[in-house]
Amino acid sequence: METGNPEDRGFDSDRLGRIDRFLDETYLKNGRLKTMQLLVSRDGQPVHYYHGGTLRDDGTPMREDALFRIASMTKPVTSIAFMQLVEQCKVALDDPVARVLPEFEGLGAYAGGGGDLPFAPTEAGRSMRFIDLMSHMSGLTYGFQNRTSVDAAYRKARLDLSRTNVTSDQYIATLADIPLEFEPGTQWNYSVATDVLGVCVERLSGMALGEYLREHIFAPLGMDDTGFDIDPSQQDRLADAYAYRPGQAPRLIDKGGESRLMETAKFHSGGGGLISTLADYDRFCTMLVNRGAFDGGRIVAPKTLDLMTANHLPGGADLTQMSQSLFSEASNAGTGFGLGFAIVTDPARTLIPASKGEFYWGGAYSTAFFVDPVERITCVFMTQLYPSSTYPIRRQLKTLIYSALTQSNA
Question: What pLDDT is attached to residue 96?
Fold first, then answer.
């Protein structure tokens, strides 16, 4: 991939070179990570590109157009799609979710006591609103949290494994039979909320989520390699996926050449189902750093993106005060949450170089991105190692990138 002169974009070339050496020595040579790609851009122009490792466990070389499971990096895309509908006044952030999903009417929080989930007692409370879905304050959860009886009900219903199991309507019907963990708006909990949001996009638009994203986001941005399904002609581009094993080499868990992702998805997971490339997601990030604009077109309005990247936690709290979730897509201190993104509210408390207002997220296979609207820097990192909490690579990459910056806008 061609990059411009880093010096022209306010970076030190030698210091950027530290990134390659660090990734090679810390992760690649010892087999901690099998495959990696990184792209750093400023003002929408690539300034540093790295790729290493192999595409497949059989030694197939890495390729620039490799396809990756981006998991929860799907969430910001779905959130942008929903806000397009908000801009058209087809829905409002403070509308009750039951307006679009009548199955959720009367859904309450688990009250404990007798009965087996999903038929446990519930407590009536404030109705779930769309802003609760977007800010992860809905009362929904993930089965992998392994903390509560509600989490257990999700695992029993296989709600974390819905790609080929259910349709969108079946997914919502199953969720509607399981109580919430808490009254909406009172706590922060990483959850299937963005999957629910994706179903709302489908019902409001009358289109399958993948079709909506293709028409309104991917085509305008030129994200031609992003979607919920993989064309058979692209199968040779899908990277293998691995799982961490303490003290051992990563375990191969999904061979690119034999992946279940070759099956057509019945359910388009707005919270984690997209497959994409480094170049495609860089285009998405370029749109974000340009406040919704890309190549003469517009995906969302600047004020819409401003609203999405404000901290929506009550009283300006950060995640240390609001969250008990087990997740690693964001560090907690000095970090708030907006409408689809984690937001840096206090760079000093993060203990990592950052700008106030920087926003980001990541995926379960250790992929990550961030957008710095002050320095106009974007970064996309792709790999395929589950879970994302295995290594502190996101913190390390940010430190290396900012240490190479010589001209700051702050």
Answer: 98
Mean pLDDT of 42-49: 97
3-state secondary structure of 161: coil
Question: How far is 74 from 213, CA to CA, in rounded Å?
Answer: 11
Nearest CA to 40 out of 380, 404, 393 is that of 380
pTM over 0.70: yes
pLDDT at 402 over 60: yes
CA distance to 8, 380, 383, 404, per residue, from 401 (Å): 16, 12, 18, 5
Q: Is the pLDDT of residue 197 over 90?
A: yes
* pLDDT category of residue 1 using cuts at 50, 70 and 90: confident
What CA–CA distance (Å, rounded) separates 247 from 89?
53
Q: State how far the Cα of 218 lies from the Cα of 231, in Å rounded to an integer.
A: 16
H or E, element range at 134? helix 130-134
Cβ neighbors of 119 (< 8 A, separation 6 or more) are 177
Q: Is 389 left (phi over 0), alpha (psi -120 to 50) or beta?
A: alpha
State how far the alpha carbon of 244 is from the alpha carbons of 252, 385, 391, in Å.
Answer: 9, 7, 10
Read off the tokens for 186.
Answer: 């009172």
Q: How far apart are CA 408 and CA 405, in angstroms?
A: 7
DSSP character string of 38-68: EEEEETTEEEEEEEEEBSSTT-PBP-TT-BE
Residues in the chain: 410
Per-residue pLDDT reduced to its tens digit, 129-147: 999 999 999 999 998 887 8
Please provide residue 361's backbone torsions phi and psi, each rounded to the nearest 5 degrees.
-170, 180
Helix (H) or strand (E) segment spanning residue 335: strand 335-337
Share of the chain above pLDDT 90, in %: 82
CA 159 to the chain's CA centroid: 18
Set out the domains of the chain in order of their start, with CATH numbers: 6-72+228-403 (3.40.710.10), 79-205 (3.40.710.10)
Confidence of residue 122 (pLDDT cuts 50, 70, 90): low
Residue 267 tokens, joined? 């359910």
pLDDT at 403 over 90: yes
